Please model this.
Amino acid sequence: MISFEINGVGFEISIGEIDKSKFEYWKDREITEEDASKKNKSSLFSDHWSDLNDIFHDNGPAILENTKLEVKENDKIILETYLGAQDLSGSKINFKENKIKIDNDYYFLGYQHDKGTFYKTELETQSFEIDKLLITYETIAGFSIITDIEYDGESIDKGDYSTTTKEISLNVYQNNE
Model:
């Protein structure tokens, strides 16, 4: 039995298109869920900040130097590595990056910074072969988060997901590209 665990830092990210008037209203204000969901013409979302997500929404562990992957076989560590950008180069693990560009003129970006365990699961396999491991991550607005992990072509279920929220940040932006 192979056990698989990723812990450290991660994010839930929600990005949605807004119009210029909402950008102008919120650009110099602190956005709170309570203020932004009041029913008026400047409302950003109707219920929860993560509902404003027509550009992007996902959550997972971050590609950061303090995000750790641990693979065990019968409770013995057979692979332990950190998943920061510098750790990816030269790694025997296969990585696939999907870069997402925001084309909208005005947009909302909310994120929840979490800490804890993002994957804790077991795999039914006779032996672990590192070249059968594929970690897919998406990069958007300066964030890189792991969105899928496959072993031997099969997506791995996250299993026990146990995190604590450390921060929520809600902001509006104008695309200057």
Notes: The chain has one domain: 2-174. The chain has a mean pLDDT of 91. Residues 20-26 form the longest helix (7 residues).
